[in-house]
Model the fold of this input.
Amino acid sequence: MKKSITKNYIYNLAYEILSLILPLITTPYISRILGAENIGIFSYTTSITAYFILFGSLGIAKYGQREIAYLQGDSNKYSRTFWEIAIVRFITMAISMIIFYFSFVTNEQYQIYYTILLLELFASCLDISWFFQGLEEFKKTVLRNLIVKFISVISIFIFVKTSNDLHVYIWIYVLSIVIGNISLWTYLPKYLKKVDFKKLNILQHIKPTIALFIPQIAIQIYTVLDKVMIGTIITNKSEVGYYEQSQRVMKILLAIVTSLGTVMIPRMANTYINGNRVQLKEYLKRSFSYVYLLAFPMIFGIICVSKYFVPVFFGPNYDKVILLMGVISPIILIIGLSNVIGSQYLLPTKRQKEFTISVITGAIVNFIINMLLIRRFASVGACIGTVIAETTVTCVQLYFVRKEFNIKEIFKSAKNYVLSSLIMFVVCIIIGQLVHNNMYSTILQVAIGAFVYGVCLLILKDELVYAMLDKIKQKFKKIGEV
Done:
């Protein structure tokens, strides 16, 4: 039975938001207790660890999700496929852990932190969220994330007390991942059939996972390498801290925009394997509109509120984050579009080659721009490099699908959202001039801005908004009938 896209979106959105927003609750506290220098060390060491997780995981997360989606209707086949893919991940992550140990854990600089972070690699071995996502069972991951993250937030306030408690903060960060990933295994008996492990063929999955691994490397280059390069090129680790804090906010907003993509990957894969090309394009059309609906007001909103939001949220010593948030904000739209074309279309339809070319091109551009700008502009240069790299990725992907989609129509469908966002922007600027209290100004700008944006779309009779309102009316009508 097909799962509801709306419900799965809400579940996955909750999953993504909880992963980001619960730690974000602690950010004002941690920013003040640990300071920019320690935040920079945390960001730098976890970025290094992320590379080893990337290499150990290969392209298994996206590949596993897609393969399970293809086999949704056959529990015997997807049970066998699950164990084959899981075993591949155990082996590759074990190799990555050994290399990480001898490369960093035995190194004197930040040794205590790398020792703790070794457990994060172990946690990655146990990550089977891809299996539930492939089955479109997003509720399981949400419940797991809610409980574990909530406990980790409470632990941070209880145990992190001074600037010397960075190692405690990292322990809490790592243990929350370990416990969260282990908890997902308790759901497996309900879904898996017994398999003959002697008949498993794990080798058949090596080549396709490597095919998806290559673009994953490229993506990591222009998402994680920024922090590594800032930390390596610039001696002041506070610059990494500023960049990290601006990224925290962007990740929250990006999660809202791209969460639909995670839900749509298994649905698109299943639609593709059943040969329904018309429905495939209809799904994509809605996805583009959805990205525009959220991305434009977020970009203009960030530019409006960051001046008042940053001092209240991060503290008085993070003024540079205001500039960084404004510079990097366009990636909300740019990544949103590439998520639709790349993750929702190219990957589910087995066009890894085009996807790989796009992200490798972006990685090369990002590395070159970083080398040119970070030494001179530090974290600002990294933000500029990220925007240019992500724009490159989206442009290359648009080029590959130009014959299948009307590019002009894709951009033309954004007009309602651009106009409504501009009107919202003007209103928010006026509010910011009238109300100078940082906290109240931010709250008013967000609340009134959202109201103005919604009213503008209603006046323009936006198709997506009216479709969403119709669904809500139908839900209430059903409740009333009951």
Remarks:
- The longest helix spans residues 5-57.
- The CA atoms of residues 68 and 81 lie 7 Å apart.
- The chain has a mean pLDDT of 84.
- Residues 414-482 form one domain.
